[in-house]
Amino acid sequence: MTDKLKKLCKDGNKRTRLIFILGAAGVLLIAGSELLPDKNSADTAQQSELTLDESERYRENIEKQLTGIISQISGVGEADVMITVSGTKEYVYAEQYDVSRKSQSGGEDTQQSGQVILAGASGKTQPVLKKIMTPQISGAVVVCEGANDDRTRERVVNAVSAALGLPSTKISVEPSR
Q: Which of 7, 13, 27, 113 has its CA 20 to 30 A from that of 51?
């Protein structure tokens, strides 16, 4: 096989050589593109990591604020709070939908296609952000001094329920050692 290629390169005309060289270059480009890292997957991984960091900061901020509030309740000494969140921060972008309906022999087919709306100035376009959804708080645990007293425990549960919008069944208040 290699002997035939060598003979073709030596004996062939310029056109055959050019086709051979271009073909080899094409194969090398295709093979080389597989070795390079995919920029989109790296961007997605970095954005996912950033979203997790934002969710962690959100959770820590809520815990800090709640600890401050609970420690001011009558009968409560030091308090420690842990909340659990489900999901991460989500960005919801404005979309434009095209709806088409076709009626054939009494039946109705509906097709929808959506596109994210882009807007911008100075030559830069960005998607239009409709809203940002924060992670859902799914539960809370409070460990505090004074939780042995039923009235104090009830006050803490009511405060956490009001602050986080959680039912009392998702809140645990325990006495500290």
A: 113
